[in-house]
Design brief:
With 595 residues, the protein is α/β, with parallel strands linked by helices. The chain contains 14 helices and 27 strands. 25% of the residues lie in helices and 24% in strands. A hairpin with a 3-residue loop joins β13 and β14. Bound molecules: acetamide.
Length: 595
């Protein structure tokens, strides 16, 4: 079987060449978002970005050409080409078509000049070199944080960080801020001072990085280092694509090398719910696998069974691995929208008399649970309680992004609830819903979190001391901070690492928020310069990675690296880094982590 596709302006021109005669073939595929029929085929059905179209009978060896397009978008690069394409014959046989190449990423720009300072990213708060140097092949130290970095070094093939003949590291306790440390590097020994484990850990990370980036020939001097923000995060969408637990462990290692300390684990979305909760076993059992014959069709997956779920032991292992790296894990349950999987398994979460025709940005209908249905609350409260209890960090992200316009307005039960509660709009009911769910989280002794939209509604939104994540830009985060919410900044235009690096048609990635180059990751203000008082509510920075077009774990790394270096710089450094220095340090970082 042969399958080819070229992007021609607004069209995806496809050619399938069968190696045998096929009667009544249906072509099935996913795209970046909702697709349209342009020519040579007839719509059969579609769910979100998944589409099935009827082709005429195929003759062995005779190429057949047809065209698809996108609803209101032009395909920008290879990530927009058919994903997981297959044919279904009229007697139900499934024929997988060859996957299309996933595209290139631009080689990092060659820096115009080598960085002259300490080759460390993020850059330290201060560095005073003595001018001496010392040759080091490893370190000697009896300290748990140093041992944790030694284990990381072993896992990531950096050799022996701790060794009996290594340079001596003396651990001291000092009155420093959380996660801050100082290092005094001399030809005789090194003194690492911090208030507690976090600071010693980051001092040890710095020692590992210097060993690699300076190739064992380390400059002597005094380094002081204090993080700017308490929240330095990275998000991973494990719902659209199931990442093996080993890949998540690798991501945690990468984060630790960059002094990132919050992992936002997004395992629930329209296409799957992937945590093995006991309160709702059918939820993950019926949605962990997608493909032909499954409850959720082959959205982003291809015909063959694809997916998986995380056992509670998998989650505990992720939490323990993270803890050893000074990283806390925040799970997300993602409601009331982006909840097709939940609503399909539990249809009683929707009003049967709802006549609304609202559609999500991703093209889904009926992907929102209804707060006027008692079953919705049974499910949401059980989920919030069980998921929250598994994660000792004590922060539960509830979701609340991208509720389709006019949701619930066709539901008589939701309209009655709106009237009873003195509300008016969809946004008001969303705010009321989030606030009620947040109350459960607080009752459970935890703190709620949500995407920026949770601030909306005439009741003031979610409230309950929630942390909000500003994603459509920085503006909504500033507004939420003014309203008294603590905020994490994750503006798509700068730190959505699933966006393509460039505009090149051969590149790969989303582009709805524009392209995101390494330089873009640092070209923004986390705190508005003319409103420094917002600093008390802006608690940090987070990179985001959505996985719609990711079908293999390895595709993650060239999307994250090097751009995650910009995220880490924004989260850690109090002083700006120039784009030229960032590019230069990204080149040095290649010996620490190969994308
Ligand atoms: C989002 O990107 N929808 C949070």
């Amino acid at each position: 079987m042969k399958f080819e596709c070229t992007i021609n302006g607004a069209r995806l021109d496809c050619v399938v060449t069968s190696d045998r005669d096929i009667t009544g073939p249906v072509f099935c595929t996913s795209g970046m978002t909702r697709m349209t029929v342009v020519h040579g085929c007839k719509m059969v059905t579609q769910t979100g970005s998944y589409i099935e179209v009827q082709l005429p009978d195929l003759k062995a060896g005779a190429p057949y050409a047809f065209s698809l397009g996108y609803d209101g978008f032009e395909p920008a690069n290879r990530a927009w080409m058919p994903l997981g394409p297959y044919l279904r014959t009229n007697d139900g046989e499934v024929i997988q078509l060859p996957a299309l190449p996933s595209g290139f990423h631009p080689a990092p720009e060659t820096p115009t000049k080598a960085f002259s300072g300490l080759k460390l990213i993020p850059q330290p708060t201060s560095w005073s070199p003595t001018g001496q140097r010392v040759l080091i092949n490893g370190y000697t130290c009896e300290n748990d944080a140093m041992r944790s970095v030694a284990a990381l070094a072993q896992r990531q093939n950096h050799g022996a960080f701790l060794r009996p003949d290594g340079h001596r590291v003396i651990i001291e306790t000092g009155d420093l801020p959380l996660d801050a440390y100082t290092l005094v590097i001399s030809p005789d020994d090194i003194t690492l001072t911090a208030a507690s484990t976090g600071g010693w850990f980051y001092g040890a990370i710095t020692l590992l990085m210097l060993l690699r980036t300076h190739d064992g020939d380390i400059p002597c001097g005094t380094l002081t280092d204090t993080p700017r923000f308490t929240w330095r995060g990275q998000h991973l969408d494990c719902a659209r694509h199931f990442y093996k637990p080993e890949t998540i462990h690798d991501l945690l290692d990468l984060m630790a090398l960059l002094k990132l300390n919050r992992f936002h684990w997004h395992f629930a979305d329209d296409e799957a719910f992937r945590l093995q909760v006991e309160c709702l076993p059918q939820l993950w059992q019926q949605t962990e696998m997608r493909g032909e014959g499954h409850l959720i069709p082959a959205i982003f997956s291809g015909a063959s069974d694809s997916g998986g779920s995380y056992s509670k032991d998998d989650a505990r292992a992720v939490i323990a691995h993270a803890k050893a790296l000074n990283i806390e894990v925040m799970p997300e349950i993602e409601v009331p929208a982006h909840a097709l999987a939940l609503a399909k398994v539990y249809p009683d979460t929707r009003d049967p008399d709802d006549i609304g025709s609202e559609r999500s940005v991703q093209g889904y209908t009926a992907n929102v649970v209804n707060p006027a249905m008692p079953k919705t609350w049974d499910i949401l409260e059980a989920l919030a309680t069980e998921v929250g209890a598994l994660f000792p960090f004590g922060l539960l992200h509830l979701g609340c992004d991208e509720l389709p316009a006019d949701t619930w307005m066709g539901s008589p039960l939701a309209k009655a609830l709106i009237a009873k509660e003195g509300l008016e709009t969809t946004q008001d009911l969303q705010g009321w819903t989030m606030s009620r769910l947040a109350q459960t989280v607080v009752k459970n002794g935890q703190r709620p979190a949500a995407w920026e939209e949770a601030a909306n509604g005439k009741n003031g939104g979610i409230g309950h001391n929630a942390i909000l994540f500003s994603w459509t830009g920085a503006g909504p985060g500033f507004a939420a901070a003014r309203a008294g919410y603590d905020v994490v900044m994750t503006p798509a235009q700068h730190v959505y690492l699933d966006m393509a690096h460039t505009n090149d048609i051969d590149d790969w990635g989303g582009n709805w928020a524009g392209t995101v180059s390494l330089s873009d990751t640092i070209a923004w203000d986390v705190i508005p310069p003319d409103e420094p008082e917002l600093a008390k509510h802006i608690i940090g920075v987070q990179g985001t990675f959505w996985s719609e077009f990711t079908t293999q774990d390895v595709q993650l790394w060239p999307m994250l690296v090097p751009r995650i270096l910009g995220v880490a710089s924004k989260g850690w450094q109090s002083h700006d880094i120039t784009s030229a220095d960032l590019h230069s340090l990204a080149t040095d970082f290649a010996c620490v982590w190969h994308a």
